[in-house]
Specification:
Helix 5 packs across helix 11, helix 9 crosses helix 12 and helix 10 packs across helix 11. With 476 residues, the chain is an alpha+beta fold. It is globular and about 60 Å long.
C-alpha cells in the first residue's frame, strides 16, 4: 500500500502567523452603521455571503491546519454560512439610548470571545436595534490572519456598491506625492547639499528607530500611567469603545493654516487628547515616557486594487498581511489646559517634528525584512513573541485606513457610517482612524474598566478644538 501524499496547501503568511500565535491573536471588528432597519431575510443573507464573500478569496472558506512538515497552512473546508451569522437579541420596545448601551456591551462581549478554530475565522453579527447613530449595525468580526486592513477594505469595496449609482465604482480620497529636485532649492549646488542632508537624516533616523525597536523588546518599556497598566493579560480582556467624527475638509483647512499635513493634525489631536486624559486622571503623569506604536501598510500604494488583481501571482498589491510598525514618542505635557490654544499649538508642532523625522526613516521596510529574517532563524513562535514584546512595551496602538468618498450600500441597505476596532492587542488603549464620505471616524477602544473611552474621546475632541482655535488665530 502506497503512503498517502498530503496535497500541497497554501502556507499561512509570516505576518498571519504572528497574529495567530500563542503570543498574539488579533481580531478586526468592522462596524457598519445602516440608514435603514436591517430586514434582510436569512436566506437572502446566506445567498449574498455565498456570492459576494466566499467567492472573494479562499481564506474566507479555509481553516488553519498544521501540515506534516510542521508548517501552518490554509485548508479549504465546507462552510455552513448559518454558523457564521449571529443575531443579537435585546429586550423589545426600548429607546435608542437604551439600545446604544446594549450595543456597546455586545461589542465589548464579542471582542473578548475567540473565533472557533474549527471553522473559517470570521463572523457577521447583526444588531437590528436602533441607536442614536444608526437604524441598525452590522459587525464584521474577522481574524487578522485572513488579511490586513488593506485586504479587508478591498473585500468590502468588492461587496458594496455606490448608493447613488451602482454602475459607477467607489472612489477613494486622492493625494499627491511631492517630488523633490534640485530646482526646489534654486540651484544645483544647493540641491546637492539638500540631497546629502536628506541622506544623512535618513541614516540617522533609521538607526535611531531600529535601536528603539530593539530596545523595546529587551529592556526599555513605557512608564506605567493612566493609559498603561503593564498587565500582561490585557489582550485577553474585553474592550469598550467610543467614536468621534471630524470633517476632512476642516482638517485640510487647518493643516494649510498651520503648514502641516492631514496626518500631523489628526495625530496631534490624538496625542494631545491622550496627554489631557492622562493629566485629568493623574497630573503626576505629565512627564511619563509614553510611546504610540503605529501599524503601517508596507505596500505604499495610493489606492485599493480589485480583488481580482490582489489574488494574481504577480502583483504589487497582494492579498494578506503586509505591515510593519513604527514607534512614535508622544510629547510630554507642559502647561496645556482646556483653554490654552497657544500651548496646544506648541505641543502639536512638537509632535509634527517627531513625525517629520520618522518620514526620513527606512525603519518601516527594514523592520519588516528583519522580522522575516528573525522568523527564519528562530521560528514563527519566536518571531510572534518578538512582535508581542514590541507591542506590550508601548502605551497605545494607532492604525488607519482610507475608505470610499461616496456612500455605499448592499442589499438596499445604505451605510451611513463605518469604523473599526482591533481586539487582542496587549495595549490598554488603541486609536483607529478611517475615512468615509469626506469625514474621518476616529475610534477609541480601551480595556473595559481601566480606561473610560468616553472621557478619552472628550479629551481628543477638546484637543481638536484647541488646534482649530490655534489655526484660526494663525490665519488672522
Amino acid at each position: 500500500m502506497e503512503p498517502q501524499i498530503e496535497p500541497q496547501l497554501p502556507p499561512v503568511s509570516p505576518n498571519g502567523l504572528y497574529f495567530n500565535s500563542s503570543a498574539v491573536s488579533l481580531v478586526i471588528l468592522a462596524v457598519l452603521e445602516t440608514e435603514q432597519p436591517i430586514r434582510i431575510p436569512p436566506h437572502q443573507l446566506v445567498s449574498l455571503l455565498d456570492t459576494h464573500l466566499l467567492s472573494l478569496h479562499p481564506r474566507f472558506s479555509s481553516v488553519i491546519v498544521t501540515g506534516r512538515d510542521g508548517e501552518k497552512r490554509w485548508k479549504r473546508v465546507g462552510v455552513n454560512l448559518k454558523d457564521h451569522i449571529k443575531t443579537a437579541v435585546f429586550p423589545q420596545g426600548k429607546s435608542p439610548e437604551y439600545y446604544e448601551g446594549c450595543f456597546n456591551d455586545y461589542l465589548s462581549e464579542i471582542s473578548a470571545e475567540k473565533l472557533p478554530e474549527t471553522q473559517p475565522l470570521w463572523e457577521i453579527h447583526l444588531v437590528k436595534y436602533p441607536t442614536p447613530n444608526a437604524a441598525g449595525n452590522v459587525i464584521f468580526k474577522i481574524h487578522h490572519a485572513i488579511g490586513d486592513g488593506y485586504s479587508l477594505m478591498a473585500a468590502l469595496l468588492s461587496c458594496f456598491k455606490r448608493s447613488d449609482d451602482p454602475s459607477l465604482p467607489l472612489t477613494l480620497p486622492s493625494h499627491r506625492i511631492r517630488k523633490l529636485s534640485s530646482s526646489d532649492d534654486g540651484n544645483v549646488g544647493s540641491g546637492k547639499r539638500a540631497a546629502v542632508s536628506r541622506v544623512l537624516a535618513a541614516v540617522l533616523s533609521t538607526a535611531s528607530d531600529l535601536w528603539l525597536n530593539f530596545s523595546k523588546t529587551r529592556f526599555l518599556e513605557d512608564d506605567l500611567s493612566p493609559i498603561r497598566s503593564g498587565d500582561p493579560t490585557v489582550g485577553l480582556r474585553p474592550i469598550s469603545a467610543a467614536t468621534m467624527t471630524f470633517s476632512l475638509d476642516e482638517i485640510k483647512q487647518i493643516k494649510s493654516q498651520l503648514g502641516m499635513t492631514v496626518n500631523d493634525v489628526i495625530t496631534g489631536a490624538v496625542f494631545l487628547g491622550t496627554r489631557l486624559y492622562m493629566h485629568g486622571v493623574d497630573p503626576g503623569s505629565d512627564g511619563a515616557d509614553t510611546t504610540a506604536l503605529v501599524l503601517l501598510n508596507t505596500r505604499m500604494l495610493r489606492s485599493y486594487n480589485s480583488i481580482e488583481e490582489m489574488v494574481k501571482q504577480e502583483t504589487n498589491s497582494p492579498w494578506g498581511n503586509h505591515f510593519s510598525f513604527l514607534h512614535v514618542t508622544i510629547p510630554k505635557l507642559t502647561t496645556v489646559t482646556s483653554n490654552d490654544s497657544d500651548d496646544a499649538l506648541e505641543f502639536v508642532r512638537a509632535a509634527s517634528a517627531i513625525i517629520r523625522k520618522k518620514r526620513h526613516s527606512l525603519a518601516v521596510p527594514l523592520t519588516a525584512k528583519l522580522l522575516h529574517l528573525y522568523r527564519k532563524l528562530k521560528g514563527s513562535e519566536a518571531a510572534a513573541g518578538y512582535v508581542y514584546r514590541v507591542m506590550k512595551s508601548t502605551s497605545m496602538l494607532i492604525t488607519n485606513m482610507i475608505g470610499p468618498m461616496e456612500k455605499m450600500s448592499m442589499a438596499d441597505h445604505h451605510i451611513k457610517g463605518i469604523y473599526f476596532l482591533i481586539s487582542g492587542n496587549p495595549q490598554n488603549v488603541q486609536t483607529t482612524i478611517v475615512s468615509y464620505m469626506g469625514e474621518l471616524r476616529v475610534s477609541v477602544a480601551a480595556e473595559k474598566g481601566f480606561i473610560d473611552p468616553n472621557t478619552f474621546k472628550s479629551c481628543v475632541e477638546t484637543a481638536f478644538r484647541l488646534i482649530r482655535k490655534s489655526a484660526c488665530a494663525t490665519s488672522h
